[in-house]
Amino acid sequence: MKTMKTKITMLFAALFMCVMLVPAVKAEAAVVTPATPSGLGLYSQEKELFALSWTFDTNLGMYSDVYPGYYGYEVVVSTLKNKQITTMDSEYYPNDFGLKDNKVVALVSNTKMKTQGFKFKVRSYVYDENAQKVYSAFSKEKVIIPRATITNKSLKSGKVKVTWKKVSGAKSYTVYLSSNNGQSFKKVGTTKKNSYTINKSLARYKDYYVYIQSNNVKYKGKKYSSTKPTEKASNCSGFYITTVYR
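Given the sequence above, the corresponding structure tokens read:
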């Protein structure tokens, strides 16, 4: 299966242009404060690499008459305990921002995000006549609970034992299995441990993919399970069956 960076189309030159390349300033040009970003979610996950997403504002390039078409985004990521993990600006990290399916996607990688829930918020900006950023309000924070990262798979007597890293606060884990190259997954079991043995019949000479959903992480009085990503096979791991014991 292709990696996350391969799947996401990066549009550095087209979308997030450096203001230093902008021509001379127009006099008395109008600048409108951008709309607040919305539709925050998770596009995909690969271990500690997350593709965070939100709806692309098709009007963003028209909020400034002085620098039309020049704009960007700032993303703030923090733990559920309000400790900041990172702040990313598309002006300084253009290769980590892109557009996919009318969503802006930002790639964020941090080991802290692999084993605990986190949250992020976004604001957009355009440039005024002094080449200064005019920001929108920050979006509402989006809580992201990761899928657990699988550390080991072992085959014995026709059964596959899957082991994973615990996600902080998770009360249980649900195991999902795919036999069609990650196009769809079916639930095979739930456990409170960080390992599970898949007992169902597995065909020989076939690829399988499995992912682990974290369940019931508490935050501000609510219970959250792993955030549903756009990419169904996010943070899954594969195995190949060559011998089945009956």
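DSSP finds two helices and 18 strands in the chain. Try to locate this feature in the token string yourself.
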